[in-house]
Amino acid sequence: MIEVEAYRALAERAALDRPIAHVEAPDGWYLKGGLTAEALSVLVGLHFSAARRRGKRLTLETAAPDGAPGPVLGLRFGMSGRLFVDGTPGVVSLRYASNEPLEKYDRFGVMFSDGGYLRVRDPRRLGGVQLDPPEAGLGHDAATITLGQLSRALAGSQAPLKARLMDQARVAGVGNLIADEVLWRASLSPERAAGSLTPAEVRRLHRHLRAALLDMTERGGSHTGDLMDQRRPGGVCPRDGQPLRRGTVGGRTTWWCPEHQH
C-alpha cells in the first residue's frame, strides 16, 4: 500500500484534468472482472478528476467535459507493478521485480490529448485493471484503522495472526513485507491465532502498525523495513541477534524471530 500511495500522489499531481485520447490494453489477461479492451474505449474523451487509494488499490475517478461523472478506473499493482506518468515513475524501483525499462512489460496505458501518458508496467503480471471495481469487500484501510476496528478484525479468529492482517476484507493494505515488519516490531508471532491476542497486545500491534507504515512511507517503500535486509537464509534478528526462522504462513514466505516474537 505504501507504493500505491506514491502512485496516488503521482496521479493526483500529474494525471488529473487531462483529456483522454486513447486507451491501450495489450494484455487481455490483465483486464479483470470481465473487462475487455473494447469496453475501455468508454474512457476516451473523459479526464481523470480524482485519485484515491484504499488498501492496495488505486482508483481514478473520471468526468466528462461538462463535469458529469464517468466510470471509475481501478488499478492493482501486486508486487511488481509500477505506475508511470509522462515517463516519471511513482516508485523508482521495486525489490522483487525487474526494473528494466522494457515496453514489453507495459500492461495498460492511457494516452492524453496533449501527447502525455499514464502507464502501468508490470513484469510479473501480478496486478490488474477494472472499471467500477466494488469496494464493499475491502476492510478498513491499514493507514487509518482505529484500535477498535483492528480489535474487531482479529476477534474470535483462529487464523494465524499474519494471515488475518493480510486478509484484505479485514485490513486493507497490509502486504507480506509490511506484515513481517509490523509483527517483528510488535514482538508477536505470525503463527499465533489472531483471536488469542490480549487487549494490551492488540494495542501494541495497532501502535506498531501505524508507526511502521509511517516509517516505511517516509523511507520510500515496503522494502525499507528494519527487518528487510535479514529476510534471507542466515539472517539474524536486528534486535537480539538470534537466527531468524523461515516458514510459510497464510501461503506467504514469512520470517520472524522465535526469541522475542511470541
What does this structure look like?
The structure is a single chain. This protein is α+β, with helices and mostly antiparallel strands and 262 residues long. It folds into two domains: 130 residues, MutM-like, N-terminal (N-terminal domain of MutM-like DNA repair proteins, Alpha-Beta Barrel); 117 residues, Helicase, Ruva Protein, domain 3 (Orthogonal Bundle), CATH 1.10.8.50. 22% of the residues lie in helices and 24% in strands. The chain contains five helices and 13 strands. The chain has a five-stranded antiparallel β-sheet with strand order 1-7-8-5-6, with helices on one face. A four-stranded antiparallel β-sheet has the order 2-3-4-9, covered by helices on one side. Strand 3 and strand 4 form a beta hairpin. The radius of gyration is 20 Å and the shape is elongated. The relative contact order is 0.14.
Query: Structural class, please?
Result: alpha+beta
Determine the number of helices (DSSP H or I, runs of at least 4 residues): 5
Strand content: 15-25%
CATH class of the largest domain: Alpha Beta
**In CATH terms, what is the architecture of the largest domain?**
Alpha-Beta Barrel
Biggest sheet descriptor: 5 strands, antiparallel
Oligomer kind: single chain
- Mean of pLDDT: 94
Q: How are strands sequenced across the largest beta sheet?
A: 1-7-8-5-6
Distance from N terminus to C terminus (CA atoms, Å) equals: 26 Å
- Helix and strand sequence: HEEEEEEEEEEHHEHHEE
Number of domains: 2
Categorize the overall geometry: elongated
